[in-house]
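Entry 14. Structure prediction run on the chain below.
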Amino acid sequence: MVRRALTLSSFLLLTCAHAAPTSNTVPVAKTVAPAPAASTLVALPARPMVEHVAYPESPSQQASWTSLLVTTNAPLVVATSKVFEQGMADPRKLRYREIEIATGDVWSGGGAATKTHGWVLAGEEYAVAWNGLVYRVKSSGAPADVRADMTALFAADDALTKQQIQENPGWTPHRFPATDEAFFTSTLSVTPLKVALLLRLGEDKLAVRMLNALGESGHGDPYHLIVQDWLWSLYERGITAHMRGDDDLAIESFRTLPALSPRVDAECDARKVDREQRNDPGHAPVPCASFLDGVGDLLAEAQRRASAPVAKLDDTAIAALSSLPQAKRIQVLIDGLDQVAERQWGQPGGVPLGQDRIVQALIHEGEAAVEPLIATFESDTRLTRSVQFWRDFARSRSVLAVYEAAYVALSGILDASFFQAVSTGDHLTARGIEGRRVVAAKIREHWAKWKGVPLDERFYRTLLDDTATPSQWLVAATEITQPSNVQVIPSSNVFQTMTSTQLAAGQKPSLKGEGLRTHAAPSVSSLLERRLSAMPDTRHACTFAQAFSAWDAHVALPHVATLARTTVAKFATSTDKGFVGGCIGALTLVRADGGDSGALADYGNWIVGTKPEDGEYNLEQWFAPMVAHPSEPEIAASASTLFGASSPWVPFASAKASFTRERILVIDLWKVDAFRAHVIAELADKKKIGTVRVKSESSIEVKTDGFTSGQGAYPPDPRLRAGQTFDLRVCDQYAAAIATQSGYTGPAFRVFWPQADRDRALGDMIAWIAKR
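Output returned:
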């Protein structure tokens, strides 16, 4: 089983790691020159660069061109002429037809065939798409009509604009810069690139209408608008091609950018675009396309790969390596780190490099792989096929380096972290060579100190060391008490990869530090007891106390009880009530499991005085004691107050309640009588609290005075028609929240169903809950 999450313990482990210099800048794709290092490995041999055969140029590319708009909008004509002069593909004198091309996707790499229309070159092997790029086509079909396509585009766009204005009076069209390749190549998207292409085709009226459709986002310098979208289209196509292993397309996409980028920046500078926007004539302009930073390295990487293709190091190939001597096997695995192709999950989110089969194989090799991996970390300049990004709609991408994968393997072997990411967009590649040198020094220092010392003994000695920091004691305590079937792989981003081995039914895992129980002077228990009092804050103390209890519940119990009461006393003045409440919940469970008869009463007295807005996204931790002990008298009494009519916690759904309030409905509180009774009563409340608006057969918008939420209708329902509006009732919102909880096995419910269907489903849900 693999989990990627920031749990209470894992977050603290990460924040206690050694820190490299911090940065909050959004990372861009780049690589770094090799750092000088004492390495036992020689540098990788230079490979000859492959000679890429460029895609053909449009036959009209160099032909003269003029536009009647030069008299009414000369800046647009001049800008369009300049972009085509710099290489944007010219569609003139080409046949406009149905085409199928491969488009990328930054989540997976993409590459699936996309149907659209474009201008086919002679031979029908290549075509110009609506993003101004030449593509190798998968197929071409019937003739199409540019004017008909634009008529359809404008009709759909006008209808959407009208709808937006009706719903939001005073709204004016504004389009944020797009990133998706399929969006730019579609016939149905409004983009500055279409303005330029239509103008080049002599479709002046359509070009002007397209410019007007851009709204406020079309009011800037036309060159800036057009060239940014064109350069991004090249760049993103290259990034996604690299991700999926299409090195030829990556080279084609990147090949002109290193020389073109400074020319574009010079043109933007000459126009003083950024200076005018800042109203500061002396301010140095920002580059037209800052996302191109490091694109020369990306081109070199694609050329390197194309010049010497290698066999894929898949599960079968890795298994076959077992016959090799260990040193050779390790080297083959390190050579294959440029094949790492893990994908980002979530946004903002991280790339779980530790989940990759090659990284896992290196971790399995153990300490024998440490020194070769350190050398790789210090000197390797290759890239993986993994890409991290802040948001898919933001124009920034970061191709992670091989040394990042080497770092994750080292962290997994050494069970230690040497890098602290300060945001979800932060990682080693973003820190550059200096950040890598700092981390390399920490790794070497750690390895020199602990080489050959068993992991559990390392952590014991850390607890014993009076000069160690509270953060280091916390890491040691957590590692010693980690279940033996769990492996935590530190990462260069803020998320860890946690893997656990399934145990037989009823079997409990031992602790990783179990062998340390033979240490009698001082014992681990006495060290944990001593270090708990040195924890500097609630976050550290809470996690440390849980580790202490996991090791020796009897000795830890009075200390945990004292900490729990102290934490309750601090709650009212805390600036982080969500976390502190979660800590109280966790300590309550430890106390209750240890036989502390006052634990649930203390918890009940605390939680009845809280407010739901303090819990936010920590409600699962807050209510964990109720879930674990639903029938205990103390829990029943506090639940009766908490879910009673005069409580600030109820109702969970109303015209004014925030969306986060409903999170309580996905917590397994069904065996708590007061909770169950409240929910059953609310499932019968037909009072209107908002509306459900149908946007399409697969998309709806739920709106109350407290929140607006866009939701998917899955599977798409053919009964839904765009523009339909339904009443949202209290019962509907309760039922919808319940039906979406993980592991839910009750009657289905959707807020967009006809009212009669919803009412039948509500009756079924009430009966189902009553039996819980």
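The first strand starts at residue 2 and ends at 3.
Filed with the rest of this week's runs.
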